[in-house]
Amino acid sequence: MKDKKTNTRLARIFKWVGRVLIVQLILINISAAFHGYRFTHYYDDDKIRNQRSSQGKPFLRTWRLMTGRKLAKSLIQYYPGIPYDTVQLTTSKGLKLEAWYIKADSAKGTVILFHGLNSNKGNVLGEAYEFLSWGYNTMLVDLRAHGNSEGNVNTIGYKESEEVKLAYDFISKKEERNIVLWGMSLGAVIISKAMWQYDLQPQKIILEMPFNRLQDHISARARISGFPGEPFGFFVTFWAGLEQGYWGYGHNTAKYARKIGCPVLLQWGNADEYVLKNETDKIFRAIGTARKQLMVYEGAGHGHLLAANEQKWQTSVNEFLK
């Protein structure tokens, strides 16, 4: 009789625990779906752009913890101080993208520059000026949902590879044979994916601090925000990809890098909290050419490596181009 009561009690406990776990799993997925949506949508709204911290408001803090914070579309604050042409590119879905084309005297070639997530082409003018000083034309592109380009949805690099092809084709039609692609963070990821997806043939590419897997990047953002990186990264990767129509776990820069056949300069700062050393090592090992270099910047974080160490950047990039 005692055994029967004990078994009944255990069965009730297991059912209760099972129900609690199911409820928790549902809540985690609801939260992850919200975060995936917030992470991929930008709002062109000054109220969101100027919103203050919810410190001291427990409900808002809890709500943002559960659903994520709305992100404002980046605004261009810096414009070229030299003559430039404004170029329009159009995606297959009809989105109008804006780019700047700046000519150099007696150009050696053209460098196409791609910015990072939630940034814009105005923020990579520093790098563009360096390439101009070395005699290269430059083209600076606003990715979809960034700067002056149309759209309010980004796919964290999955569909933005089309921007690379559009810019590459624009320069190719000018009968330019020496095309160099430069990108930082997200910009480096989309260059790698475009090489894999469209079989582009630039002369050289420069990749600065690309993340490896989408899950790695989302986990890093969680870590830096005070969340445990996992299982947050796992669930948000699933929902972010599902909401944008792709398999998030397959979005992998090392996989894309295998098809790169031209010379590559991969650059990374060893104080980068968003992109870890093991990610950088995986990407570098995967690059499908022996003509590759890895340059590590001591003490540099996830930002402009040119600003972190101007002399080293100028030397390493200039020597690579030569």
SSE map:
Blueprint: H1 2-40, E1 42-43, H2 46-49, H3 58-67, E2 71-72, E3 85-90, E4 96-102, E5 109-114, H4 125-133, E6 136-141, H5 161-172, E7 179-184, H6 186-198, E8 204-208, H7 214-225, H8 229-244, H9 253-257, E9 264-269, H10 277-286, E10 292-297, H11 305-308, H12 310-321
Parallel strand pairs: 1-2, 5-6, 5-7, 7-8, 8-9, 9-10
Antiparallel strand pairs: 3-4, 4-6
How would you describe this structure to a colleague?
45% of the residues lie in helices and 16% in strands. It has helices at residues 2-40, 46-49, 58-67, 125-133, 161-172, 186-198, 214-225, 229-244, 253-257, 277-286, 305-308, 310-321; strands at 42-43, 71-72, 85-90, 96-102, 109-114, 136-141, 179-184, 204-208, 264-269, 292-297. With 322 residues, the chain is α/β, with parallel strands linked by helices. Helix 1 (2-40) packs across helix 8, helix 5 packs across helix 6 (186-198) and helix 7 crosses helix 8. The strands form 2 sheets. An 8-stranded mixed beta sheet has the order 3-4-6-5-7-8-9-10, sandwiched between helices. The chain has a domain at 77-212 and 252-321: 3-Layer(aba) Sandwich (Rossmann fold), CATH 3.40.50.
